[in-house]
Design a protein that fits this description.
Layout lengths: L1 H22 L11 E5 L6 H8 L5 H12 L11 E5 L4
Antiparallel strand pairs: 1-2
């Protein structure tokens, strides 16, 4: 029984390390959430951009993230404007 405990401790530690590495895969090297950049096209809105970058998420939450990442007020976006957006798995 002691041998089982002694052998399982390193295995458990290895699993914890692997799990934390996989969890960090969604962040950049600086520890910040992964992002990408999009350029606003004519006729686009933050709502539409939010739906494109995170189709399975609540657009209101994604819009809040986009506004925070870019320091945007309530003003609408304009064509040609570059926006940092959160990167989501599609």
């Amino acid at each position: 029984m002691v041998l089982g405990v002694v052998l399982s401790v390193p295995f458990a530690a290895a699993l914890m390390v692997v799990g934390s590495v996989q969890a960090d895969a969604e962040t950049s090297a600086t520890g910040a959430p992964a992002t990408s950049v999009v350029v606003v096209q004519p006729g686009e809105s933050l709502w539409g951009i939010a739906q494109q970058v995170a189709p399975g998420s609540d657009p209101r939450e994604v819009i809040t993230s986009i506004r925070e990442l870019n320091g945007l007020s309530e003003a609408p976006v304009v064509p040609g404007q570059s926006l940092v957006v959160p990167a989501f798995d599609r």
